[in-house]
Amino acid sequence: MMDQPFQFIDATNIDERTRKQIRRHVMKGKNAGRRICRPSRLATTGRLASDQLLVGNPSPSSEKGAAQTLGQACVATMASISNGSVLSMPFPVALSPSMQAAFGRFFHFVVEKIYPAHLGLCHCSVLSVWLRDMFSDEAAAHCAVTLMDACNELCLGEAYSSLESLHHLSLAIRLVNKRLAGDDALADSTLTLVMMLILQEQIRKGMFEADIHFEGLKKLVELRGGIEKLETNLPLVLKICKIDICYCLQWAKPLTFFRDRMCHVRDALAASGHSLDPEAAISTIRHAGLDAGLYALLVDVVDVCKVFNAILPGRTMETTTFQEMLISILSRLNRFCPLHTWQGSADGTNTEATYHIGLTIFAMSLFLQYDSRRAVRYETVFVRLRNVVCHRKEGVDDDLRLWAVVMGGIWAAHDENWTWLVSEIVAVCARLKLSSWEEMRGVVQRYPWITVFHDPLGQAVWNRVSRDTTGLSESSFMSS
Known about the structure:
This protein has 22 helices and four strands. The protein is mostly helical. The protein has a domain at 52-251. Residues 33-80, 82-87 and 471-480 have low confidence and may be disordered.
């Protein structure tokens, strides 16, 4: 009656280590959903209290109290996390030895890749928010494990265990659904859990699953009274807006949560000692008669670039300010020409279209790219770049086109199918009589360009174009 074959394991001739692994695997299912209070776990918590890593005794039901104590714990344990020593903090679920190491690598990625230190960004607040979210409860822990697995697989080319990851994902979805049916359905922490699920699906390119989670996120925000009602939790609002922007860029979806806080960004930069000079920014813009909204955005971006290019060693910028800046820029770019409708909409002159796609990739390169590689391939953006560069040349200055295609080259640096970009870069450089990276750099720096960030990537583009073009030399640029 049963077609399922059975296999029996001989457990009589195995070593102690293998026997423990078998027991651990069996107990995962038996203990699912239970909170195990082992003496060793309690002892670890006691050591943390004695070391004053967790201050006070907040109620488990108090999200605000948990956020404060975990924020304090975050700052105190940054050094141990960077060394991969995560067992000094009580995690809501058991971590395998390989996961302990992956945990440390993940935080290194978050701090060093998503928010580049050479841009002068302060990372303490980012780490605090991540730890607060990941350590809040069992559901958050399972979501965090699946997210870390996706990020490590993307950034390091490794996954600690696909089966283990699926196990945590299934538990995370079950616990999130349970929460959605309870009193905490509209809590900030529930919104955070749903965003973790969306993000790991975006990284794994699971559009169908991401669609389901994103529709749920929109409904939760709507039931809370809209994004404006969440302003008391600024990190949560910024996460929602970033998830929305990435979702829009990746799959050409409409932008749901528009946010423009550039006026607050200017105030925050001025308060932190970074000088802003809109008049100086306006004097460097080479094109008049642009759409008023696009022109105002271009002035802001040029002004921000001047701030980054003038940051002195030792001076930092708050990551909140950095995120507000990028969200504002990309929201306004989407309002000028939504990606999900650009194929059939009037998106301005050819010059405006070139500025639009160049500024889009400029902003994306600052928080969606690491080590000259993209976190996710945004196909719609790349298709639009090719359409603008190859089919909307009339009336566009060569130096503006060069900046746009170099930005495209930075974004597509590891793409195999970038032959058309090579051809465009070679052709524009020939018309402008540019025969070296230094000469090309002098042209692209007239447009939005952050020297410490884009110079190495731009030079890598020049080097690859030189290498990939058959027989290319400095003289062949001149004679093309």
